[in-house]
Amino acid sequence: MREMKSRRASALRMTRFATAVSEIARNAVVHGGGGEISVSITADEQYLVVRCQDHGPGIGNLEQAMQDGYTSRDGLGRGLGGAKRLSDTFDIRSAPGEGTVVTMSCRV
Amino acid sequence: MPHSSTSNLVKILEEDFTGIVEEWLGTQVEEGVKRSDLFSDAESRAQNAELLKNFAAVIRGGMVDGDFNLDDAAWEDLRAVLADVTKERVSRGVTPTEMATFVLALKSPLFSRLQDKLADDPDALIEDVMLVTRLVDAFAIHTNEIFIEEREQIIERQREEMMELSTPVVELWDRVLTLPLIGTLDSARAQEVMENLLQTILERQAEVVILDITGVGTVDTQVAQHLLRAAAAVRLMGADCIISGISPMIAQTMVQLGIDVGTVKTRSSIRTALADALTAVGYRIETVKD
């Protein structure tokens, strides 16, 4: 957030991306049992990249998980799809038993 | 390791107790950790003497075959004194480095006396120096642990206070309550907010509740879910719920997340929410002078 502010990103952009990161980070904690998050800036200083990795059970059916309304617990089922819509680029890799890695970015 | 005897150490402490206390104080001054700004000379001296007295007592009675375990019952008095001194120092703003140096400064007076006494017996000297090192190091580690414990207690207390501070239910008018939410809304806080709110609705016979999220930076799906659940519970109790303070940023984010607020009433500012609430309970705000 601070980095984005110093680069004069708009409040809307910051709120959106912070929300997306919050969704993904919470997924990693709730479903993945915690993990690591790294924040970086691309070499051309155009994008803020957040990479979130957990070592949880992984997601079996990614397509289904990305769909709105699908939830494995009692959530709203908008987290993954929503996070994708809120970031500029979004990449998710996961396999059962191998944890999940989400890389997302936002233009600054 | 050969069996080490504590008799030399005990003798030194008996022979020159005050001398050691004074020199210990001196070393603290040299190391710049005496903090005469925080403690008077008499206080420092009393603290050091008390510590050394207990130290001497456990060396006489708390050593098993020349070895020691700080967790043994025999060390309880010393541990308690160390804890007291540490807590006292923490509360006056001494840093962990200063605290550790304060304890470690005890080594040098003991070393120099052992050296004088055992000049002819280098093996015994090395043994005793090693023993003193282990003992004093263990004290220093122990004080550090107490130090961290104290800090953690302070953090925990502040966390609890913040939790209470952040969920005040305010009665704005007859039968109108508001709950200004600030910061992040995690599950624990959401639960507390909800309980607090529902109880107050009952006590005050409230008819309208305004949940104000002006101070909430981001609303993700979980926060939204907590808010909607709170609104549903309020409605079950027969009161109306208005969620106010939805900024343009949060509105757009919520739309993109695909959050459906259903029939929950939302307002952009607490001002419009209040106007609605007053109308609902049968009041009107009028200008009396123009």
UniProtKB/TrEMBL annotation, chain A:
Keywords carried by this UniProt record: Kinase, Serine/threonine-protein kinase, Transferase
Residue span, Histidine kinase/HSP90-like ATPase domain: 10-105
Keyword presence, Kinase: yes
Name under which the protein is recorded: Serine/threonine-protein kinase RsbT
Secretion signal span: none
InterPro entries: Anti-sigma-factor_SerPK, HATPase_C_sf, HATPase_dom
Classification via Pfam families: HATPase_c_2
Organism annotation: Tropicimonas isoalkanivorans
GO MF annotation, one: protein serine/threonine kinase activity
Automatic annotation (TrEMBL), chain B:
UniProt superkingdom: Bacteria
InterPro entries: Bact_StressResp_Reg, RsbRD_N_dom, STAS_dom, STAS_dom_sf
UniProt keyword Phosphoprotein, yes or no: yes
Ranges of residues in domain STAS: 166-277
CDD domains: STAS_RsbR_RsbS_like
Keywords, sorted A to Z: Phosphoprotein
PANTHER family reported in the protein's UniProt record: RSBT ANTAGONIST PROTEIN RSBS-RELATED, RSBT CO-ANTAGONIST PROTEIN RSBRC
Official protein name in the record: RsbT co-antagonist protein RsbR
